[in-house]
Amino acid sequence: MPSVASSPNGASEAAPVERRVALITGVTGQDGSYLAELLLAKGYVVHGLKRRASSYNHPRLEHILDQKYPNSERFHLHYADLIDFGSLCAILRDTKPQEIYNLGAQSHVQVSFQLPQYTAEASGVGVMNMLEAIRATGLEQTVKFYQASTSELYGKVHAIPQDEETPFHPRSPYAVAKLYGFWAVKNYREAYDMYACNGILFNHESPRRGEIFVTRKITKAVAAIKLGKQECLYLGNLDAKRDWGHARDYVECMWLMLQQDTAEDFVIATGETTTVRDFAERAFARAGMPIRWEGKPGLTETGVVAEGELAGKTVVRVNAKYFRPAEVELLLGDPSKARTKLGWNPQKTSLQQLVEEMVDADLEMAADPNAYLKY
């Protein structure tokens, strides 16, 4: 029951319940938008950080910013940047959050080979900046900090599946930067007794996934080919294996990690793996264009529509420019710890359900760009 206090006129009234305040970096991204929805539904005041851009850069948040969205008045956007320490301190002083979700990063693996220094600053040093900003503003004993780590840390894997004890072997500038952030979190937890934890997230997708990531690239191309707006989809390593889950499910696990009494690191994964090839097959089949593969595996292999009005049409080709300089062949996470300690269900959304949702959304969006907000 709420506590009761006396008002100046002697009447009894319930004491106000303190609202929880959360800060999300990277709120304009896929995970950030789903997490903002989750926290608002739980009654949080949510502050999100966005970087300055010359063009509109938060379409995933447009529905939340609408006054008709439930609890939209509790959602606030601020300009800041993980590589600008001063801006982080200012935001923390102004908002005084109890929970911080650090989702901001330069998160594209292929791009990290082209922008290694920037990736190191944004995805590695940026984590340290936020941790130091927490200390500089005196919040180290009152705030809970979540760091979005990544399965790319495992890289050239040393064990299958990968769990919290599996050795890391990063294979890209992105993974190396994230490894710096991972150990910074552990160090600050041990050195300053901060509630700071890493969620080692395996690949997670949704209709809100960026269009340059392979799953969304596939489903967007499938929709465009179906509607006659694109001729062919070009991919890299068809046999790379990934553990793909739904971002909506994964942000729930992020929240659960900050509701524990003690900070711990967790693998967030489905425990199932599949190939890029299989993902493409499922996506084309969902759109009524089942494909068969022709030619030897490699640069000359093609995907051809097996039946229907586009039967015989080549819709998938392999292009060498999409291969990584150092490939990560297989990622498969073991979510046992999260399932046991957090009560999280890693199989809430199946891979088939994920593919179908993404393809259906891209088909709708190809016909009506405003359909994006439904997802």
Q: What does this protein structure show overall?
A:
It contains 11 helices and 17 strands. It is an alpha/beta fold. It has 2 domains: 21-201, 3-Layer(aba) Sandwich (Rossmann fold), CATH 3.40.50.720; 214-236 and 276-327 and 358-369, UDP-galactose 4-epimerase, domain 1 (Alpha-Beta Complex), CATH 3.90.25.10.
The H-and-E topology, N to C, reads as: EEEHEHEHEHHEHEEHEEEHEEHEEEHH
The parts where pLDDT drops under 50 for at least 5 residues are: 1-17
Number of domains: 2
Number of strands: 17
CATH class term of the largest domain: Alpha Beta
What are the SSEs and their pairings?
Elements: E1 4-6, E2 12-14, E3 21-25, H1 30-41, E4 45-50, H2 62-65, E5 75-79, H3 85-95, E6 99-102, H4 109-114, H5 116-136, E7 144-150, H6 173-192, E8 195-201, E9 204-205, H7 214-226, E10 233-235, E11 241-242, E12 245-246, H8 247-257, E13 266-268, E14 274-275, H9 276-286, E15 291-294, E16 302-305, E17 314-318, H10 336-342, H11 351-367
Helix pairs in contact: 1-8, 3-5, 5-6, 7-9, 7-11, 9-11
Which features does this protein show?
375 residues, alpha/beta, Rossmann fold, UDP-galactose 4-epimerase, domain 1, 2 domains, seven-stranded parallel sheet, 11 helices, disordered N terminus
At a glance:
With 375 residues, the protein is an alpha/beta fold. Helix content is 35%, strand content 18%.
